[in-house]
Amino acid sequence: MLPQAGFVTSRVLAIESSCDETAAAVVEGNRVLSSVVRSQIEVHEKFGGVVPELASRHHLGAVVPVVDEALSAAGVELPSIDAFAVTEGPGLMGALLVGVQMARGLALATDRPLVGVHHMEGHLWSAFLGDDTRPARPFVPHLALLVSGGHTELVDVAGLGRYEILGATRDDAAGEAYDKVAKMLGLGYPGGPAIDRLAAEGCGTAVKLPRAMADRPTLDFSFSGLKTAVRVHVDRTGSPDSRQALADLCASFQAAVVDVLVLKALRALRQTGRDRLHIVGGVAANRGLREAAAQAATQHGFTFEAVPMRYCGDNAAMIGAAAAARFDAGVRRDVDVHTSLPIDDARMLLP
Ligand code: KG4
Ligand code: ZN
After folding, report:
1. On the CB side of 330, how many CA atoms lie within 13 Å of its CA?
2. pLDDT class of 36 with cuts at 50, 70, 90
3. Which residues line ligand 1 (CB under 6 A)?
4. How far apart are CA 125 and CA 80, in angstroms?
5. What's the pTM?
6. What ranges in 126-209 are assigned the alpha helix state H?
7. Cβ–Cβ < 8 Å for 5, 159
8. Angle at 258 between CA 254 and CA 264, to 5 degrees
9. From the centroid of its chain, how far is CA 133?
């Protein structure tokens, strides 16, 4: 029986480069000593999305300084690192390889082990991160709503490497829907934060939009119909001609996304008997979602804890914490880069 992932203490230097953030962090178990994230938003925003070739090139230029900065911000030297960790997928192949080669080089040069981490397992572990402003959290079995640019999943998290996907999106991920709608409304890339800001000024019932699959028993999601409904609304009424009209449309879109996410999360909590909900991933930074989830969880007697904003989006601290848990549990295997892989794939699961 593997030890439960609780407070682990190995010192890990982790690298994350799966998409458009070059990140490095030093952690001791779930405690973050440093977390450096260099975003490539400025590189990609003029194209309205991530350009893979440009992402790889910018990771190459950033990875060494970002690792250096993580070490110096943590106040530690390379020889004091117990293990290195890196995101092995899913993600963009060229981008992943930059992080993997850097981590391999560091592990070889220092004769330390290298731990490969599934990006989504990293997001799951972001729930337990602590730092100077927040104590590290021990592992507790729970239900995770994992919402990012590429994923929308309800995951039963029973232990380290014991993940069961209860429901997932059948088409667009929630973050992808945010990004596509934002592009449609001329709000730039990435769209989530812009829509979230405008939604705070608008009325969520101003535009009637669908809640896909809300009344079906499945825990799956679908967001492409919602995106189309926004498009149809814009085609019919024209682009919003005032800030208020734009804010109302954003608020209505956000309410449609949040309603379904919260409704299905509550349904999954009831079905599994779990009493704790964590929302993780880039979209977990959404203010509307955080408020609605907190309110619904309290109302129905569940515990809800929001991941600190700085650990919602892609970062290496979450990769380090997941790696420390795997390392301390004695898991040893080669890093295996892959562009797509579900979190409940056999390679990720532990007995
Ligand atoms: O986890 P993440 O940083 O990268 C992936 O693994 O995909 O998530 C990025 C996604 C983007 O789609 C972005 O628009 C969305 O998270 N996002 C948000 C917010 N902040 C970031 N979506 C809604 N509201 C936000 N405040
Ligand atoms: Zn992510």
Report:
1. 5
2. very high
3. 19, 148-150, 175, 178-179, 190-193, 196, 281-283, 285-286, 313-314
4. 23
5. 0.94
6. 174-184, 191-199
7. yes
8. 155
9. 21
